[in-house]
Amino acid sequence: MAATKAQFEKSYKYKQHDHLICADCSKVFEFCDPRIYEIQKLAGELLNFNITSHSLNFHGKCTKLATEGTCENHKP
Ligand SMILES: [Zn+2]
Fold this sequence. Notes:
The protein has 3 helices and 3 strands. The chain is an alpha+beta fold and 76 residues long. A 3-stranded mixed beta sheet has the order 2-1-3, with no helix packed on it. A hairpin with a 5-residue loop joins strand 1 and strand 2 (28-31). The longest helix has 13 residues, at 2-14. The protein starts with a helix and ends in an 8-residue tail after the last helix. The structure holds zinc ion. Zinc ion binds next to helix 3.
Protein backbone atom coordinates (compact mmCIF):
# COMPACT_ATOMS: atom_id res chain seq x y z
CA MET A 1 0.00 0.00 0.00
CA ALA A 2 2.80 2.40 0.88
CA ALA A 3 4.41 1.93 -2.51
CA THR A 4 1.13 2.67 -4.24
CA LYS A 5 0.68 5.85 -2.22
CA ALA A 6 4.26 6.93 -2.94
CA GLN A 7 3.79 6.27 -6.62
CA PHE A 8 0.61 8.28 -6.61
CA GLU A 9 2.28 11.18 -4.83
CA LYS A 10 5.22 11.01 -7.17
CA SER A 11 3.07 11.15 -10.28
CA TYR A 12 0.87 13.82 -8.69
CA LYS A 13 3.87 16.04 -7.95
CA TYR A 14 5.20 15.31 -11.41
CA LYS A 15 2.09 16.88 -12.85
CA GLN A 16 2.40 20.00 -10.75
CA HIS A 17 2.37 22.86 -13.17
CA ASP A 18 3.79 26.35 -13.24
CA HIS A 19 2.60 29.58 -14.74
CA LEU A 20 3.41 32.27 -17.26
CA ILE A 21 1.45 35.42 -16.45
CA CYS A 22 0.87 38.10 -19.07
CA ALA A 23 1.20 41.68 -17.85
CA ASP A 24 -0.94 42.98 -20.72
CA CYS A 25 -4.02 40.77 -20.65
CA SER A 26 -3.48 39.01 -17.27
CA LYS A 27 -3.88 35.64 -18.95
CA VAL A 28 -2.22 32.72 -17.20
CA PHE A 29 -0.53 30.08 -19.32
CA GLU A 30 0.23 26.78 -17.66
CA PHE A 31 3.23 24.66 -18.40
CA CYS A 32 4.77 21.59 -16.87
CA ASP A 33 8.45 20.71 -16.86
CA PRO A 34 9.63 17.71 -14.83
CA ARG A 35 13.01 19.42 -14.30
CA ILE A 36 11.36 21.85 -11.89
CA TYR A 37 10.30 18.96 -9.69
CA GLU A 38 13.87 17.64 -9.86
CA ILE A 39 15.13 21.00 -8.60
CA GLN A 40 12.58 20.98 -5.79
CA LYS A 41 13.57 17.47 -4.79
CA LEU A 42 17.30 18.26 -4.88
CA ALA A 43 16.89 21.47 -2.87
CA GLY A 44 14.86 19.59 -0.27
CA GLU A 45 17.54 16.91 0.02
CA LEU A 46 20.41 19.39 0.19
CA LEU A 47 18.79 21.51 2.88
CA ASN A 48 17.09 18.60 4.67
CA PHE A 49 13.78 20.34 4.07
CA ASN A 50 10.49 18.58 3.57
CA ILE A 51 9.07 20.55 0.65
CA THR A 52 5.34 19.97 0.27
CA SER A 53 4.50 22.38 -2.53
CA HIS A 54 5.87 25.15 -4.68
CA SER A 55 4.69 27.96 -6.87
CA LEU A 56 6.57 29.37 -9.81
CA ASN A 57 5.32 32.28 -11.85
CA PHE A 58 7.00 33.85 -14.86
CA HIS A 59 5.82 37.36 -15.68
CA GLY A 60 5.95 38.89 -19.12
CA LYS A 61 3.89 39.51 -22.22
CA CYS A 62 2.14 37.01 -24.44
CA THR A 63 2.21 37.56 -28.19
CA LYS A 64 -1.43 38.60 -28.51
CA LEU A 65 -0.88 42.33 -27.96
CA ALA A 66 2.18 42.35 -30.22
CA THR A 67 0.59 40.40 -33.07
CA GLU A 68 -3.00 41.67 -32.94
CA GLY A 69 -2.40 45.15 -31.50
CA THR A 70 -5.02 44.56 -28.84
CA CYS A 71 -5.85 42.38 -25.88
CA GLU A 72 -8.33 42.33 -23.01
CA ASN A 73 -6.56 45.10 -21.06
CA HIS A 74 -5.47 47.19 -24.07
CA LYS A 75 -8.38 48.43 -26.14
CA PRO A 76 -7.31 50.20 -29.33
ZN1 LIG B 1 -1.41 38.90 -23.10
